[in-house]
Every structure is written in structure tokens, then in C-alpha cells.
Amino acid sequence: MKQPRIHLILAVVLIIILAGCAKSATTKEGAATNTPATTTAPTAKAAPKVVKAALNTVPVPLFSFLDEKNQPAGFIIDYLKELEKKLPEYKFEFESVDNEGQLIGTDTGKYAFAANFWFKNPEREKKYLYPQQEFGYSITGLAVKPDRNDIKTLDDLVGKKLVPMSPVSGFRYILKDYNLKHPGKEIKIEDVDKTTPADDLKLVESGKYDAHLLNINHFEDAVKKLNLNLKIGGVISKEPVYFIFNKNQTELAQKVDAATTELIKDGSLSKLSEKWFKVDVFKSLEFVQQGYKFRKE
């Protein structure tokens, strides 16, 4: 009677072992045929990082202003759009403030950068990060009355009355540099807290001042709107312009720098310059001078 019982136990054990092997084989076959146990959801695309920047509160003709639909427009706005295409990891948001507010806000970190056409000078380089690559140029000229043919260069300003300048004006540094190189023949610089290109040009037209040093695009816009009887006596220089960044925004500044270099190499910024300024400011000063001379005539 014991032997059949043993046989029965062995049979049960064998069935259990075979069942286990069959289950293992099924699992391996399922793996081999890529039968998934669960479905993994696709990874969501990371949202771009929002970067807060300062923009001019006072319209800068052709550089940045509000169009007829009350939307930001101009060379700087189009440049920023191109940057966002190159740097999809960032989304730029702006707050309109005056020049002084841009400088203070960027210095304190309220803004990551100030989107304006800033000149480079030693004082600002101590407080802000500048990209290596300029994003454009300010074409600097001297506005005078039509009958003045004696003011064409900075040399001609010695002994003349130049319209006063704001302490944060980039044009002040052009004159400071000139004065350092011409001791005894300095150009007198008067100060004013706040002003506008239109008010400055009116001072020249009235005869109170002999000339005004300014961005030619400001001149053309103001003369057209106010019907001023003035001319550009001479194109002085084309000054490289930059955005300025908070000192802690090293990575952002470097990425913007690299993207700007690409936009210059592929001709994108030259096209924007021709669109807004009617001349490619990235070409030589002589080329730019001829371009503005042609337009003046």
C-alpha cells in the first residue's frame, strides 16, 4: 500500500515542476516577442525658461517702438525673435523702463539683461556683462542747420556749442575719448538730466546750439515727424552696440553671444538692418556713409 502512495506523491511533484517550467517558458517567450507588461508614457518636452528683460519706455525710432497695433516692433524686437529661434530653451519677457531704470534693474538682478543699443565703456564693463559680439551699430552723425557747412567732423566742434547730454548717454564717451586724444582742444560737454531727440534737434534749429551728436535714425525720425529744417553735416562713426547682462547671467550672455555670431554669419542681421535702416550697417563705415549720403540727397 505504501508504494502506490509514493508514486502518487512523485507524480504530483512532477506536475508542479512541469507547470513551473511552462510558466517560465511563457514568460521568456513573451519577452522575446516584446510583449510589454506595462506602457511607459512619452517624456514631456521641457518648457522654456522665462527670462525677464528691460526694454525702452521711450520709443527708439527703428530700434524699438510700438507699431500701429500697439505691438513692439523694430530692429531689436526682430533680433530678439531670431534669438528665441536659436535658443528655444529661453522665452523673453519685457518690462518697459527708462535708461536709468534699465541700468539699475539689470545691476540689481531685477532684469537678466537690458535690451537696448548700449555702447561699451569701462565704467559699465565693471558692473555688467557684455557679449563679445555686437548685435548692430549706432550710426553717429552731427545735426546742423542747412546753412552750416563748417561742421562736418568732431574737429569742427572745438569752440562750438554742442547740445547738452544725459550722464548715461553713450555719445558722451565718444567725446570723452576725443578730448583725451586732443588735450588743449577739447570739445565742451554740457549736462542735462533727461531729454529727447526731438527737443535736442529743436535747440539746433532755434540757433541756440551749433550742433547735436546723435544716432542718425533718431534724426530722420524726428525731422520727418516735426518737419524740422536741419541736415546731417557729417557721419562721424558707426559705434558697436550691445545688450548688457547682469553679472550672474554668464551662461545666458554666452549663449546669446554665440547665437548672435551665427545670425551675422548667415546674413540674418544684415537683412534686418536693411529692412529697418535701409542700409547694411555691418559693412564698412565708408559704405554706410555713402548709403546715408544717398538718402540725404
Automatic annotation (TrEMBL):
SMART domains, sorted: PBPb (SM00062)
InterPro entries to which the protein is assigned, alphabetical: Solute-binding_3/MltF_N (IPR001638)
Signal sequence segment: 1-24
Pfam families: SBP_bac_3 (PF00497)
Keywords: Signal
Domain called Solute-binding protein family 3/N-terminal: residue spans: 50-280
Domain of life: Bacteria
Entries under PANTHER family matching the protein: L-CYSTINE-BINDING PROTEIN TCYJ (PTHR35936:SF18), MEMBRANE-BOUND LYTIC MUREIN TRANSGLYCOSYLASE F (PTHR35936)
Protein name (record): L-cystine-binding protein TcyJ
Origin species: Paenibacillus marchantiophytorum
